[in-house]
Structure formats: structure tokens, C-alpha cells
Amino acid sequence: MPPLAVAFVTSEMTPFMKTGGLADVSAALPRALVRLGHRVMVFLPRYAAIGFPAGEFAGSVHVPVDAVHRSAGFYRRVLPDGVEIVFVEHPPFFDRPFPYGMGNEDYGDNRLRFAFLARASLEYLRSRGLRPDVLHAHDWQAGLVPVYLKAFYWDDPALHRLPTLFTIHNLAYQGNFGADTLDVLGLPWHLGSDDATGHQGGISYMKAGIQFAEVVNTVSPRYAAEIQTPEGGYGLDGVLRGRGSDLVGILNGVDYGEWDPRHDRHLAATYGPEDLAAKAECKRDLLRAFSLAPEPDLPVVGIVSRLVSQKGFDIVVGAWYDLLQRPIRMVVLGTGEPELESGFRSLAERAPDRFGVRLTYDEGLAHKVIAGCDIFLMPSRFEPCGLTQMYSLRYGTVPVVRATGGLVDTVEPWDPATGHGTGFRFDTADGTGLMWALDQALGTMKDPLGWEQLMRNGMARDLSWDRSAEQYVAAYRQAMAKV
């Protein structure tokens, strides 16, 4: 089959802007698609942190997003891996240090900011007569892309009947805005019905993407099933069940160019499945980084995450007494909800010789944590896919996870009788379940041969983006066949 031209619209992309896994996917998936022979253009806001100029000036266009006369400037850059990025510039909307808000407060104009991103991306293509084979919109921030295409561009000479794939990275964040949003954006009033974008008395950009895209996907098969239930659907389960025949789960991949202990530039020593000895040096280096003594040699449990209740870290903080009774050290890297940050800080104050906490995000230190720990903890209440547990598998760091979403798809329970499995899972989202799984891991560590087999099993898993990219190509062709 001929190669495809794919256009992404996303609000995050590593290394330019990152708050979560969306940024990693927006960088790694285009690279994998290019390796398969396809062409990819990524539309990304030019945030303040990206600097100016972001690339070669590629012109400007009027963007009719609301009653105010607005224009977008475009800056084009081709990365060494062949991915083309078009930065969308509009300083009143994007010249800000953070993409969505300050602290726990969203920006009050987010409905306009991301409507502008969607419309500006389409105007760039239209004004240049560029028609990709498929447009790939990511999360609620790009949810209006398929709506605009059908409302204003369906018969456009350049963009006529352009198919879209809409990816749900996290259904909990929906981009819900007031009922006047369609009036503000100049969209037809009938699009506010419950059969279109209307949701709970307002307008949902997430629902817009789900309803108007040709094909919808999410980032793991298990999560695709969970979001069609009342428990996991966040009020959109009925809508998703209605799109069930067009809804697919595609597991995220790992960029092994960045995440592989055999050539990781952040590590004190590199290692691989054929020789695990240097992992001990990574452990000592990690303990030094967190000002923890290397002796006695206790198992080290690691956390790298946003410290929020969705990720289950209220369970960890609530189990502080039980954690103190175990012969472990724990290192925590991340930021999040103030009460959870306070809880981890308190745990470190109770046992500063065994618990290290860094309430920040540091990319290099994240690599050190994942390489230097024995056990990686991910107790999520729900998890669309998760990437860090997949990183930990590659690094021979055994994951302990809750049985939800992509964690089920990527972590196979250890069976000492057969020697199969890659980690440990628990079902109940409480301290009892957490400590049971952690104790299973600690007990297995007492069998060095069994533990080494468990480590090697994880390191042998192929969770590369090349596999996932081929599934995305199939989803693109499915979308193309529907128009």
C-alpha cells in the first residue's frame, strides 16, 4: 500500500512541552510512522517555553475562531528524524509558561485557545492547498478538529471529506465548557444537542471528538473496554458504546532510543539483560542522589509520577505505617496535589534514612529512579495506558501495579511455578491490596534466581512503538475507508 501523509494536532510534544504521556506519544508515534515510510506533520502551539523564533517562518493566516479578528503565525521545523513540526503562534493565547493553567486553576479562556489551535491548523492546510490522507487529533484540546472539518470544510477544495482519527489519552479530562460556547465560536446551534457536542448542560470538546471523528481510539485495549462502562466512562460511556464498532484500543509504545539501559546517557553505568551486574551501581548512584545511605542493602521501591489521587498515591500515603514496617527504602519523584505532596514529605520526615522525596520533575533523575530501583510502584485507580511501568520492565525494575487499564495489558503476574510473568498486580484500590502485592514482590526477592528470571522476563518484552505504529496505520486506513 502507498505511504500515508498524516497531520497531528496536539497540545503537547516532547521535548517542547510536557505535562504527561500525551507529550511522549506525540513525539514517539510520528517518529515510528516516519520509520515505516509515512510522512507526518505535527501542529503544536508555540508556548513561551519554546522560544522565538521556533523555526522557519511559514506565513500567517486569519483564523475565524470568534468575533475578534485573530491571526496565527506559523513556524516550520523539520526534526532530524524527519518529522515536520508546525508551531502555531498567537501570543495572547499561547505565550504562557504552562499549557492549561497555573497550579490547579485552568486558564479561563481555554475554550478559545484550543478552538483556535484546531481552526488554525486547518487554515494552514487549506491556505497551502495541503491535504493529508488523515488528520489525527489528540484529546479534548483537539476535539473540535473533526467538528470544524464537517461544519466548514467538508466541501473545501483542499480539505474536502478529510477523515479523522481521534485519540482519547485520558477520558477524565473532557474540556467541558458553557452552553454559550457554540455561539462564541460561531458554530451551528444544532451542534449543541445531546447527539452532538452537548454534555451535562454545556459543550464537551472530548465528546465532540468522539462523535465527529471517523474512528476513535484509546491507548490500551483494556482501557477501551473500561471507558464503555459507567464506572470508567465519566458520563460518556453511552456515547462510547454507541461508537463501539469504530472504537479501538492501541497500546502505547516505548521509545527505546530514549529508554534503554544499554545506552541511557543518564545512568552511572549501562547494562542489559545479558549482564545485570551494573544495575547495582545504578542503585548506589540513585541512593546518593536522594541522600540515602547504601547500607544496609535494602530493596528500593521507586515512584515517578504526577502525585494525584487518580494515580493511587493517596493509597500509598494512607499506608504509611505499614510501609514503615517493611525493610525497604523508597524514593519518590514528582509533583501533584498539595495534600499528597505533604503526605510524602511527612513520610520522609518520619524516616529520613529510608525515604527520599523530590517534589519536582527532573528527566535525568527519572531515568536514574527507573534504573536504580528494584521495584517500581504504580497503584493507579485508573490508567489509560501508562508508560513508566513499561520503562521499568525494560530496565529490569519489577513493577507492582493495580489491575486497571493499560497496566493489565503490560504487566503479567509472576508465577513462580512456571517462571512466567513480569510483575505483580493487585485488584482492590486500598492499602490492603497494595501491601499484599508489595509483600509478594519482597518475598520473591528472597529467591535470587527467581527474581533474576522475573527481571529478564520484563526486559525481553517488546513494547516498541514500531508495533503500535502499524496498528495506527490500520486505524488511519479504517478512517479513510469511511469517507
Account of the 3D structure:
The protein is of the alpha/beta class and 483 residues long. Helix content is 36%, strand content 18%. A nine-stranded mixed beta sheet has the order 3-4-5-2-1-8-9-13-14, with helices on both faces. A six-stranded parallel beta sheet has the order 17-16-15-18-19-20, with helices on both faces. Strand 18, helix 14 (388-394) and strand 19 (398-402) form a beta-alpha-beta unit.
Describe the SSE topology:
Elements: E1 5-9, H1 21-35, E2 39-45, E3 56-62, E4 71-78, E5 84-89, H2 91-94, E6 101-102, E7 105-106, H3 110-127, E8 134-138, H4 145-152, E9 164-168, E10 176-177, H5 181-185, E11 198-199, E12 202-204, H6 205-212, E13 215-218, H7 221-226, H8 237-242, E14 247-249, H9 279-289, E15 300-304, H10 313-318, H11 320-325, E16 329-333, H12 338-350, E17 355-358, H13 363-372, E18 375-378, H14 388-394, E19 398-402, H15 405-410, E20 424-426, H16 431-445, H17 448-460, H18 465-480
Parallel strand pairs: 1-2, 1-8, 2-5, 8-9, 9-13, 13-14, 15-16, 15-18, 16-17, 18-19, 19-20
Antiparallel strand pairs: 3-4, 4-5, 6-7, 10-12, 11-12
